[in-house]
């Protein structure tokens, strides 16, 4: 290769990178809308993953709220999506910190691995607000879910439905992440202490995605001739599909609040419990960040949602610590909405539609 | 042939300096990316910021070094992800929880890395397993051990480790000094008798054996060293994040292979080196940093890395073909 060749090669790489910037970034919240006369708060949303149905909806709600009439003159939102690993998110955050925005709102790749970097952001005078997968950095504000309470209510519902006896399948989620660790730990503990007659005859790893859940439940159904319930933290719709494909009767099952499973449980009168974890938490975070930046008070930690859902056929009196609502069309599930919608879709004074959430 | 038959211009031609195009291309690539990144982020032209960027690169640099060693003896090491995770979780759980002699415990983590690498070496050099199959198996096994040590992200890393990583040596960030030490260690190894044996085994195992090179021992030691390097990578990540993660190692497996290939170490063994892989690993980190600075979608960074891999592989293949064409 000649020197000219080597130079051309380097130029080609640099050129490819430059060209790729044509499809560049995401700047919402009044970007291009002109905005008002005052200085807008620069908020960076740092997200490390878009590989499931929840995260893109979370990002879309953030864009919606930042661009809404109440906030478009106050907020300039910059969305940063990094690769899924903590190391990639750290690198992305360092690039953000160099630009010194007013606030970083973060759905974190790890509860702990980003702490040193976020402490660095706090020291640089940047407000750090974590939500959903929160960090433990003391300087960060937090809007978490209460995994322990969610898991306890779900297992108590199933235990009561089965009257303390039967054979069930258990979802181990995604090994290595705090959500799965908490769910599995709580489920095992409560089953052992309160429902010793319930036997876990098989486990599967849903990985919080419909495909692996369908595959995992199907494999377990093939191995186990009798199943009385499914304790999952993910896709009820996949469980229903697996049971139907195997020609097995429907059983009580738990999962996350996806519209697809909720629609099926409502119309087919199945016994279902849904853990409430709506994606609008990002919008709530923006509201609170603006409040803090404008000098208002905000608790350092606030559980953002504490309501779970049960289908009409699944209603039963059982011990629970979080609020409980029965599925109601148009309120907490949407008969004409997409299966992938995480419900409920709107909060507070906002009028967020399914199209807004899905980014259409 | 008499000198009288040689054309005058050939006789007068001065010997041209020999240029290693493999090193030149890798260096040029890195330099280009540094210039692009600096032009996009002027704030990066600061020794502290450079130190932070290098700190994020350290885990990949060490895993790339581990992978290079395995590839140099015509092998591959998929278990680097597992060794990395075990060392990372050991640092966050056992070393962090212990009071007092953290240095000794960190040494124990390194020995564990060496031992895990040696197990690979025994499977490959001793029992004759294919490197891909052997390390595929141990990757899963070591990953399981990591999950057993730490079921999910957490733990506490000893303060001494984070202090060292975030410290400076004569005003230079420790992360930069660590890279210099890695390169120096490679230089010492490369010029040693053992270094020569590594290249000999990778180049032509049979010829190396006939020349008296203890091929099996060299292979075993190379995999043990690869384990050591991967363990250092795991410790580096624990230090940078002040925590442990049982799944942190897996993404580094393919990234380290990319770094090896982009750097120019031949997958057929016996050519290349850790220095080249370190430069290539930096290039991958810089691509990601440039993508962050430009706020590009994550797929752009991934696609740019993949494109770079293809371009470099193609360019090297062309160079090799041209070199082979010249051989009489």
Automatic annotation (TrEMBL), chain B:
Keyword Ribonucleoprotein: no
The UniProt record lists the keyword Transmembrane helix: yes
CDD domains: TM_PBP1_transp_AraH_like (cd06579)
Membrane topology: Multi-pass membrane protein
Keywords (A to Z) from UniProt: Cell membrane, Membrane, Transmembrane, Transmembrane helix
Official protein name in the record: Ribose ABC transport system permease protein RbsC (TC 3.A.1.2.1)
A Pfam family: BPD_transp_2
Transmembrane segments: 21-40, 52-73, 80-98, 104-125, 132-150, 170-189, 220-239, 251-267, 274-292, 298-319
GO MF annotation list: transmembrane transporter activity
GO cellular component: plasma membrane
Source species, domain of life: Bacteria
Protein localization: Cell membrane
């Amino acid at each position: 290769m000649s020197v000219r060749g080597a130079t051309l090669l380097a130029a080609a790489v640099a050129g490819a990178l430059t060209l790729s910037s044509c499809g560049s970034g995401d700047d919402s919240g009044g970007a291009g809308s002109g905005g008002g006369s005052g200085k807008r708060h620069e908020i960076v949303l740092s997200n490390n993953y878009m590989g499931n149905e929840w995260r893109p909806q979370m990002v879309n709600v953030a864009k919606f709220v930042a661009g809404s009439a109440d906030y478009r003159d106050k907020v300039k939102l910059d969305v940063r999506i990094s690769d899924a690993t903590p190391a990639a998110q750290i690198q992305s955050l360092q690039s953000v910190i160099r630009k010194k925005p007013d606030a970083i709102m973060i759905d974190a790749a790890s509860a702990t691995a980003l702490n040193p970097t976020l402490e660095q952001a706090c020291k640089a005078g940047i407000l750090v607000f974590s939500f959903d997968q929160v960090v433990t950095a003391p300087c960060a504000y937090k809007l978490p879910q209460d995994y322990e309470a969610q898991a306890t209510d779900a297992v108590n519902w199933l235990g009561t439905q089965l009257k303390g006896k039967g054979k069930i399948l258990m979802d181990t989620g995604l090994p290595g992440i705090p959500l799965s660790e908490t769910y599995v730990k709580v489920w095992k503990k409560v089953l052992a202490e309160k429902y010793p007659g319930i036997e876990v005859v098989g486990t599967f790893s849903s990985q919080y995605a419909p495909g692996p859940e369908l595959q995992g439940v199907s494999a377990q159904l093939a191995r186990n001739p009798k199943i009385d319930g499914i304790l999952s933290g993910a896709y009820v719709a996949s469980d229903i599909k697996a049971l139907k494909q195997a020609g097995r009767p429907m059983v009580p099952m738990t999962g996350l609040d996806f519209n697809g499973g909720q629609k099926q449980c409502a119309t087919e009168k199945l016994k279902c419990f849904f853990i409430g974890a709506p994606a609008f938490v990002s919008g709530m975070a923006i509201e609170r960040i603006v409040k803090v930046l404008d000098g208002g008070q905000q608790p350092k930690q606030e559980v953002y949602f504490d309501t779970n859902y049960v289908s009409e056929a699944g209603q039963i009196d059982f011990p629970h610590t979080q609020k409980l609502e029965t599925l109601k069309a148009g309120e907490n599930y949407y008969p004409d909405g997409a299966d992938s919608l995480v419900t409920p879709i709107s909060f507070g004074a906002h009028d967020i539609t399914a199209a807004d959430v899905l980014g259409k | 042939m008499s000198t009288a038959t040689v054309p005058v211009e050939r006789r007068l031609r001065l010997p041209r300096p020999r240029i290693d195009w493999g090193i030149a291309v890798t260096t040029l690539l890195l330099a280009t990316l540094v210039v692009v990144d600096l032009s996009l982020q002027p704030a990066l032209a600061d020794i502290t910021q450079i130190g932070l960027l290098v700190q994020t690169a350290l885990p990949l640099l060490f895993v790339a070094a581990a992978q290079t060693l395995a590839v140099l003896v015509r092998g591959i090491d998929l278990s680097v992800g597992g060794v990395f995770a075990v060392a990372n979780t050991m640092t966050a759980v056992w070393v962090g929880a212990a009071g007092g002699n953290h240095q000794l415990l960190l040494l124990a983590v390194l020995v564990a890395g060496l031992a895990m690498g040696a197990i690979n070496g025994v499977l490959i050099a001793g029992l004759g397993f294919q490197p891909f199959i052997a390390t595929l198996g141990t990757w899963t096994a070591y990953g399981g051990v990591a999950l057993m040590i730490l079921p999910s992200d957490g733990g506490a890393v000893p303060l001494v480790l984070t202090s060292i990583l975030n410290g400076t040596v004569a005003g230079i960030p420790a992360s930069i000094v660590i890279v210099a030490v890695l390169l120096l260690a490679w230089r010492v190894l490369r010029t040693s008798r053992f270094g020569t044996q590594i290249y000999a085994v990778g180049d032509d195992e049979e010829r190396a054996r006939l020349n008296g090179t203890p091929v099996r021992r060299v292979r075993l030691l190379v995999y043990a060293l690869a384990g050591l390097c991967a363990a250092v990578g795991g410790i580096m990540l624990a230090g940078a994040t002040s925590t442990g993660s049982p799944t942190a190692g897996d993404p580094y497996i393919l990234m380290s292979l990319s770094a090896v290939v982009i750097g120019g170490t031949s997958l057929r063994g016996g050519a290349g080196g850790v220095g080249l892989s370190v430069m290539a690993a930096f290039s991958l980190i810089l691509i990601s940093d440039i993508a962050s600075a430009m706020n590009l979608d994550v797929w752009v960074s991934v696609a740019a890395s993949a494109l770079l891999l293809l371009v470099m592989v193609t360019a090297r293949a062309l160079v090799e073909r041209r070199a082979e064409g010249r051989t009489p």
